[in-house]
């Protein structure tokens, strides 16, 4: 006998059909709404079903498109990133009102799957922001105690460029990594091939590719793809590569603990976190992530800025000459610059600001997510919207910066800038501004002065002797802006200055040593070789 009567079979059929129809209608409705802007979000570019505005071709620079949309839709507009909402802020007024005044209604980091699954930094950075010991070691005053190692590393950078000018990009990257690793984990990286430098930049490169449209698009459309195995999606592969950083940070923490136990502290940030983490309830894994979160945004940004600075000096020789004249008057030829010299160098300060403005290192800052509705003028920014500060467009607004594509440091004197705080955008505004900015500003000031004091930087030449022509837009397209690899000619301004650099490099040994405790044998050999070379050249 059949287990069901004819009646019960037809009831089951009807029920199945009903579930099927309701399910199909639900999916159809979701598909229709996915990618479609919801009222009352600010308006914006027309959306396509499902993908919304995730249509930027991979060969187009995101900020070019965003600037075009600002011209069309104004200082605030919205985007649909698949099912997600985003707003783009392209005026100082909107940034102040939304990011600064309403900071209680936005999270420190974007809550999107993209950031959460790669960085795992949400927890740690939230703690970092609230926890007094961390706030204290990030202050301007506290960062003065790292000037010894920053100064020594900047001297090595001049020494390295002197020895091998063609490799200046890698030497800048080494400098930026070594300074950040020393200050955060207490361990320096003395050569571009130090394993920590290689591992960090490789994983970081994957991290920076993650937000690119080609990589994000499939996830915006089908969030479930996050659970698919690595072989199936490029994004998953990239995300997993970034996880290698955790092994690196874990190793650095182990070395740090060994130094603390051996009573060989050097004042790095993570000493505080390791020693006082337990009172905040942090376990070992969280301490490691904490270190990763602190360092993650340091080396790449600093090195991108310094490469842009060299690129600008090379392409605007008049600006370089004027800055060198100022450095000559204030510092003279007989000593290398000290960080406090910057206060007496207004043109160099303007040159640095103009470099930040012309090619902002972080053109879209980091996205934040709203945790409640925010009202701005006639707009409502709904909860769960990603908020992007469009630094690039603000810094290229011809209403504020006349002829924005040309590089003119003097504009910072003439502007009578309507809002002096516009420059602060470079490090983010409000309670989520870059926590490493005091350290970063010291690095930037010191190296900018050093480059101007020590070297002449000019364009490379064709075999015919004619100067090469450079594409001023040949910059990387991602979240971080740096010039693509370029050739340039860097020569010492005089033999006397080259001699001072070598002797200062030798004098810096006591500043390096506290950060050299866990160095591998190859790095030790390299360090010894450099010191022998420096000594031989002036004895
Ligand atoms: C040229 C150098 C640098 C620039 C232009 C820069 C810029 C920025 C910007 C724009 C943000 C996003 C702020 C926001 O969310 O609104 C940021 C975040 C951050 N920066 Fe920097 N930064 C630089 C160097 C550094 C250094 C040297 C460190 C530390 C060693 C650092 C650590 C961080 C951290 C940890 C965050 C994330 C903060 C968070 O998620 O709440 N940065 N930076």
Question: How would you explain this protein's 3D organization?
Answer:
With 539 residues, the chain is an alpha+beta fold. It is 54% helix and 6% strand. The chain has 24 helices and eight strands. The strands form three sheets. A four-stranded mixed β-sheet has the order 1-2-6-3. The protein has a two-stranded antiparallel sheet with strand order 4-5. Strand 1 (76-81) and strand 2 (84-89) form a beta hairpin. The radius of gyration is 26 Å and the shape is globular. The N and C termini lie far apart (106 Å). 42% of the residues are buried. Protoporphyrin IX containing FE binds next to helix 9, helix 15, helix 16 and helix 21.
Brief overview:
This protein is α+β, with helices and mostly antiparallel strands and 539 residues long. It contains 24 helices and 8 strands.
Overall average residue pLDDT: 84
What is the tally of helical segments? 24
Number of strands: 8
- In spatial order, strands of the major sheet run 1-2-6-3
Share of helical residues = 40-55%
List all distinct small molecules, including ions and cofactors, that are bound in this structure. protoporphyrin IX containing FE
Key features?
binds protoporphyrin IX containing FE; four-stranded mixed β-sheet; alpha+beta; Cytochrome P450; two-stranded antiparallel sheet; 24 helices
């Amino acid at each position: 006998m059949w287990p069901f009567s004819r009646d019960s079979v037809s009831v089951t059929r009807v029920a199945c059909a009903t579930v099927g129809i309701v399910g199909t209608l639900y999916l159809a409705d979701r598909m229709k709404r996915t990618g479609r802007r919801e009222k009352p979000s600010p308006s914006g570019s027309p959306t396509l079903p499902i993908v919304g505005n995730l249509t930027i071709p991979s060969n187009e620079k995101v900020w070019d498109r965003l600037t075009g949309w600002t011209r069309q839709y104004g200082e605030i507009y919205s985007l649909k990133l698949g099912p997600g909402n985003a707003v783009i802020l392209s005026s100082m007024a909107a940034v102040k009102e939304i990011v600064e005044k309403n900071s209680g209604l936005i999270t420190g980091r974007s809550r999107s799957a993209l950031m959460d699954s790669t960085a795992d930094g949400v927890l740690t950075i939230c703690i970092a922001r609230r926890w007094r010991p961390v706030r204290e070691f990030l202050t301007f005053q506290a960062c003065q105690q790292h000037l010894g190692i920053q100064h020594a590393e900047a001297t090595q950078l001049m020494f390295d460029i002197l020895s091998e000018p063609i490799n200046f990009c890698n030497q800048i990257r080494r400098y930026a990594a070594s300074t950040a690793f020393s200050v955060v984990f207490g361990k320096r990286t003395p050569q571009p091939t130090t394993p920590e430098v290689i591992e960090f930049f490789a994983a970081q490169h994957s991290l920076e590719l993650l937000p690119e449209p080609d990589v994000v698009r499939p996830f915006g459309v089908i969030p479930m793809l996050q659970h698919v195995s690595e072989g199936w999606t490029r994004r998953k592969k990239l995300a997993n590569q970034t996880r290698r950083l955790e092994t690196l940070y874990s190793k650095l923490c182990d070395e740090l603990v060994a130094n603390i136990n051996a009573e060989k502290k050097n004042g790095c940030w993570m000493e505080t976190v390791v020693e006082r983490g337990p009172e905040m309830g942090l376990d070992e894994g969280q301490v490691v992530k904490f270190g990763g979160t602190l360092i993650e945004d340091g080396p790449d940004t600093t090195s991108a800025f310094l490469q842009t600075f060299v690129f600008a000096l090379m392409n605007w020789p008049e600006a370089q000459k004027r800055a060198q004249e100022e450095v000559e008057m204030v510092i003279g030829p007989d000593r290398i610059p000290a960080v406090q010299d910057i206060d007496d160098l207004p043109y160099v300060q303007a040159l640095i600001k103009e470099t930040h403005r012309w090619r902002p290192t972080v053109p879209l800052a980091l996205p934040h997510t709203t945790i409640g509705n925010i009202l701005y003028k006639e707009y409502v920014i709904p909860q769960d919207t990603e908020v992007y500060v469009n630094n690039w467009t603000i810094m290229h607004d011809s209403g504020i910066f006349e002829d924005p594509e040309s590089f003119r440091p003097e504009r910072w004197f003439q502007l009578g800038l309507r809002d002096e705080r516009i420059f602060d955008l470079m490090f983010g505004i409000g309670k989520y501004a870059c926590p490493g900015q005091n350290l970063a500003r010291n690095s930037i000031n010191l190296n900018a002065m050093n480059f101007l004091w020590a070297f002449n930087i000019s364009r490379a030449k064709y075999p015919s002797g004619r100067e090469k022509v450079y594409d001023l837009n040949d910059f990387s397209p991602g979240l971080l802006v740096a010039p693509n690899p370029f050739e340039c000619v860097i020569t010492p301004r005089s033999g006397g200055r080259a001699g001072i650099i070598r002797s200062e490099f030798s004098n810096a040994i006591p500043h390096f040593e506290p950060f050299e405790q866990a160095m591998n044998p190859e790095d030790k050999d390299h360090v010894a070789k450099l010191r022998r070379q420096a000594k031989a050249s002036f004895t």
